[in-house]
User: What shape does this take?
Amino acid sequence: MKYRRRVQAAYWRAVIIGAVVLCAMLAAVIIFVPFGGGSGQIEDEEEFEEGSFMPVEHVDEPKDVFDRFMKADFPPADGFDFPVGDPDARGGYTDIGAGEKHPGWYIAVDFCQYYMYGLHPAEDWNGMGGSNTDLGQPVRASATGKVVFSGISGSSGGVVMLQHVYYENHRKKRIRSVYKHLDDIRVKKGDIVYRRQTVGLIGQNPDRKMLAHLHLEFRHQENTGPGFWPSRYGKTKEWVQEHYEKPSSFIRAHRYLLVPQQERRLMLVDQGSGRVRLYEKGRLLTEQKLGLSQPKADGGRLPKGMYFVVKDKNRVKKAGGGSDANQPRCLQFNFPNKFDALWGLEQKLIPGEIVAQITRAWQDRRSTHENTPWTLAQGQLLLKDGTQLSPLCKKIRAGAMLVIF
Ligand SMILES: [Zn+2]
Assistant: This one.
C-alpha cells in the first residue's frame, strides 16, 4: 500500500504543473493542488482515501486525423443501457429471498443531491419493493467497454469501473461507468465486457447505513480511483456537474450509437488536405487525394460530421445538358444530421419535432433535408478526380457512412 501511495504521489508530481514539493526534516510532506485547480488543497498525502486516485493509462493517439478516429484498442460502445431492469430501466424483478414480484426501479438518491455522505456524484437505483428486496439482482454493463477496476474499495465495497469509447458525429469520445456496492463481482481488470453483460449483483454499502442499491456513476476523469468522492476533496456541485454526467440523462441521450469500424463501407474525408479514405469493416481499402468542393450554389462551406450517402452515381450536369465521365462526381449525403439539427434547435432555427424527424431519418440513412431551412447544396460533395472516376468512387453506394473532418 505504501508503495502504491508513493507511485500515486510521483504521478501527481509529474502531471500537475505548479505542484510544489517540500521536504521536511524527517518526512516528505507534499503540498499539492488537485486537478481542476483551485478549490480543496490537500496538505498531507495520508489524507488521501485509499483508492481515491489512480494513474491514467497512457493512450497513444495517432497524429493523423483518420488514424486517430479509427484507432480503438477495444470495441467501441454501440449504445448505452440502464444497468438495472431492462435496457430502459423498466420491467419488474423477483425478490430472491421472499420470492415476491416487484414492479420496477427508481432513483432513491439523485445526481448532485446532498445527503448523509455529502454531494452525490451518482444515481442510487433501488427496487420498488423497498427494503432489501433488490439484493442480489443482476447489475449489467451499461455499454461495451473495458474493465479498469474490479474489486473491493474501502467504504464503497465491491466496485466495477468500465472505460468506454464511443463515437458522436465525427468525434471519438471516452467516458467511464462506475458500479458500487456490488456482491459477487463477475469481471476482472482488463476484461472486455459487452453491453448488458452481468458485472456483479446488487449489494449493500459495507457500513450498512443504507439499504441495498446500485450506486451508478458516469465520470469523465481517468485519474480518479474507485473510491474518489468529490465533496471529500472540496469539489463543488459545479465541478461535479462538469466532470460527471447525470447517469440517466447520459444513457437516454446515448441509447443508439454508430460504430464506424463495423460499417460495410466507410468513407473518411479530410477537407484540409483533400485526402479521402475508404474502409470496409474497419479495414483500410484505399487512400486517395481528390479535389473536393461544394456545388456552385453552395452558399456555405462543407459541414463536418457523420453522414450517410443518400444518392450515388449522379454526375454534375454539363452546361449544355447531359453528363460525361470527365465531369466530377457528386455524392449526396444526408445533411443535416442529428447533431446539425440539435445545433439548429439551439439557434432557434427549427423546433424540437423537426429535430426528432431529422434524427430518425438520419439514423435510417435516409435524406433529411426536407422541412429544414438548410439548403440541399450543403449536403453535396463534389469529387473532382480527373479524367476517370477512381475505383474509390465506384465503391461508394447509397447507405455508406461518410465522415467529414
Ligand atoms: Zn450512491
In short: The first strand starts at residue 20 and ends at 23.
